[in-house]
Amino acid sequence: MSSVVSVRSFRRAARETVSGLPREFWWLWTSTLVNRLGAFVATFMALYLTLDRGYSASYAGLVAALHGLGGVVSSLAGGVMADRLGRRPTMLVAQTGTALSVAALGFVHHPLAIAGVAFLVGVASNASRPAVQAMMADIVPPEDRVRAFSLNYWAINLGFAISSMGAGFIAEFSYLAGFLIEAGMTLACAIVVFLKVPESRPERGGKDGTGAEEDAVGLGTVLRDRRFMGVVGLSFLVAFVFQQGAVGLPVAMGAAGFTPADYGMAIAVNGVLIVALQIPVTRFIQHRDPGRLLVISSVLAGYGFGLTAFAGSVGVFALTVCVWTLAEIVNAPTQTGLVVRLSPVHGRGRYQGMYSMSWAVAALTAPLTSGVVIDRYGAEWLWGLCAVVGTVAGVGYAVLMRGLPPEEAPAERPATAKADVQVGTAA
Fold first, then answer.
1. Contact assessment for residue 178 and residue 167, using Cβ atoms and an 8 Å cutoff
2. 236: pLDDT strictly greater than 80
3. Which of 217-226, 255-264, 374-383 has the highest mean pLDDT?
């Protein structure tokens, strides 16, 4: 009897989690899932360059840095495009460009050509992120946005987990096949967007019909927004901490005598927990104070990595991964929802672009910083630094969230959303 009740409870919870969201959101969600299912380059680029092409580890690191630099450059550019050209055109251009550049990467051989194309892949693949986030904010009512962002984050991690396993088998057969499969999957995303996702950008035209109202929202507006830029800075600190799961953790485990398989077992806990817990945790946090959630998740992330200093076995490493993964599950949708809350309607693309750039810069700087700290001072200092950075971010959020402006009224949103979607369907 209890098992029947638990099954019914699970079904009811799942239904409540996915119900009430616009149809356009689910097509966008499908596009995200397909995109992540085809992820290959970011996972196996280093192995491709060192094992298949025979280049040095230093060259592989340079290519990875150029790929990250491309993401930094395109974060702001993609945000501006999303506001000026529209969310849908930006996604189509970015996804088509990603497909072409990824396919080209499998055929180029000269070191300079590989580095240049890898930079283009970073530019194209990151340019669509501000548009996706802005479109979700456009089409999803305020009270459902944390849930929507959480579901999107869940799709990203589910797709990445599946693609990582599949990419290993594909790599043993042919790296070129992996590049072509990713190009095909990314092109499939563009097709889904073209056929099923209407434009959602709010109609232009200020109160006087000249468009002056939205034109006033430029990058300068974003940079002068002190509260938001404070959030961007704190987002960088949190992203720097989370990046250590892919950067500092494998290096530290290797230096301590653990094998790549040991690291794989420990870090696999991250993906498993996100897939298993993202939806139920979101149901618990979606109507709670975002400031408090960001404080708690920042501190929990910092001390989750800080506990790694005391890890001496794969089991303990996995336990620390559990701690900071819980912080990640809470932080990701909450922080994205906060960015939307602080963004003016006609500047959502630019604001999301600036927010995306904080993660791109963290992905670029974290490898350099962690390597220097581990080489000069030891891994324990890196984990202590993570605890300090997480604490600083938590304190920063506590200060910035004082007097947070109220979220837009739910009653004001549906009519606008409906009008926007109707305008966009005439592709």
1. yes
2. yes
3. 374-383
The answer to whether the CB of 380 falls within 8 A of the CB of 372 is: no
Whether 218-421 and 22-201 are alike in CATH topology: the answer is yes
> How far lies 58's CA from each of 65, 225, 247, 370, in Å?
10, 39, 15, 16
Reduce the DSSP state of residue 130 to 3 states and report it: helix
Contact 86, 422 (CB under 8 A): no
Fold of 218-421: Growth Hormone; Chain: A; (1.20.1250)
E strands, 77-193, where? none
Domain limits of the chain? 22-201, 218-421
What is the percent of the chain where pLDDT is above 90?
A: 26
Superfamily of domain 22-201: MFS general substrate transporter like domains (1.20.1250.20)
Predicted structure pTM score: 0.76
Grade residue 323 by pLDDT with cuts at 50, 70 and 90: very high
Scanning the structure block, which residue is given the tokens 């029947």? 4
pLDDT at 280: 86
Q: Which helix (H) or strand (E) holds 71?
A: helix 57-84
Q: pLDDT tens across 287-310, in order?
A: 788 889 999 999 999 999 999 999
Q: Which of 400, 231, 393 is nearest to 302 (CA)?
A: 393
Are the beta carbons of 200 and 135 closer than 8 angstroms? yes
Q: Tell me 307's DSSP state.
A: G
Task: Report the C-alpha gap between 246 and 263 in whole angstroms.
Answer: 10
- In angstroms, the CA 281 to CA 322 distance is 14
